[in-house]
Amino acid sequence: MTDLRQSKPYVTHMKNLGWQVIKIKGVYCYLRHFPLLGNFIKIQRPKKLTPRLITHIEKKYHPFHCVIEPNISTDYSLLTTHYGFHLSKSTYLPSKTLILSLTRSEYSLYKSFAKDTRRLLRKTQNQEITQTNDIFLFRHAFKNAVNRSRYVPSVKNLASLQNTFGKKSLFLLTQNHSTGAVFLRTKKTGYYWLAFTNKEGRHNKSQYQVLWQGLEWAKKEGCQFFDFEGVYDERFPNKSWQGFTHFKKGFGGEEVKYPGTFSKVYWKNLLKLN
């Protein structure tokens, strides 16, 4: 299954955000040049990770820092045993997620949810949730819903997602702007990409109906799977993830654990610059 971060729309999105994109042996690698430091390169969820790819990057692009986040099917042992990468204590991408099969009927899917989740979906079924193309309104609601420590994507970032993914994106917002979410999809997989809810939204449980509508959209668009894009991982603990993990698990899905983030700093390349 090809990860969204290895898809063409995502490549265009990253270019819009100022990244240089390199394609090597069918794998998209993202490069950003920093003055006085050199090239930072990240490779996220490649289908295949070969020695030739890593050697090519090191010889041609001379990075000062390289980050690789392997897919579950990737043999990542060569990173630590042959190339000097180490497993980081934190991750860039979610290291653990839930993947839900959408191949069953909508009724069967609904019946598979936890009892409390079904109850809250019934309770919120009359809430008005609409698709929006107003990026400024969406970001304003996002920013007002979360505390200052929470990352809020820029207007440029959100507009790029909407423009590059087009009909493969869905921006949902409740009528009172208390809850919103961005859903993206590839050919086979829908993604719960971004979401926010404020105190009022949490009280009204509107996030349940927003997520359900995103699931319905992915299914109607022909997706076979739905990726919840991250749950709490005891290997890389982040206590702030525990609350929404309970929420997501109510919708079911199979747990998938990724190897983590592998990082390497090329000190020789840094010394050459200085």
Characterization of the model:
A hairpin with a 2-residue loop joins strand 1 (20-24) and strand 2. The strands form 2 sheets. Strands 7-8-9-10-11-6-12 form a 7-stranded mixed sheet, with helices on both faces. The chain has a 6-stranded mixed sheet with strand order 1-2-3-4-13-5, with helices on both faces. It is built from 11 helices and 13 strands. The chain is 36% helix and 26% strand. With 274 residues, the chain is an alpha+beta fold. It has helices at 8-16, 51-61, 77-81, 106-111, 115-123, 135-145, 155-165, 199-204, 206-220, 242-249, 267-273, and strands at residues 20-24, 27-34, 38-44, 63-69, 86-87, 96-101, 129-131, 169-174, 179-185, 189-197, 225-227, 254-257, 262-265. The mean pLDDT is 94. The relative contact order is 0.18. It has 2 domains: 4-91 and 259-273, no CATH class; 96-257, Aminopeptidase (3-Layer(aba) Sandwich).
Portion in strands: 25-35%
Count of alpha and pi helical runs? 11
CATH topology of the largest domain: Aminopeptidase
Largest sheet: 7 strands, mixed
CATH class of the largest domain: Alpha Beta
Q: Shape, please?
A: globular
Estimate the helix proportion, in percent: 25-40%
Poorly predicted segments: none
Describe this structure in a few short sentences.
By secondary structure, the chain is an alpha+beta fold. The protein is built from eleven helices and 13 strands.
List the helices and strands and how they pair.
Blueprint: H1 8-16, E1 20-24, E2 27-34, E3 38-44, H2 51-61, E4 63-69, H3 77-81, E5 86-87, E6 96-101, H4 106-111, H5 115-123, E7 129-131, H6 135-145, H7 155-165, E8 169-174, E9 179-185, E10 189-197, H8 199-204, H9 206-220, E11 225-227, H10 242-249, E12 254-257, E13 262-265, H11 267-273
Parallel strand pairs: 3-4, 10-11
Antiparallel strand pairs: 1-2, 2-3, 4-13, 5-13, 6-11, 6-12, 7-8, 8-9, 9-10
Helix pairs in contact: 1-7
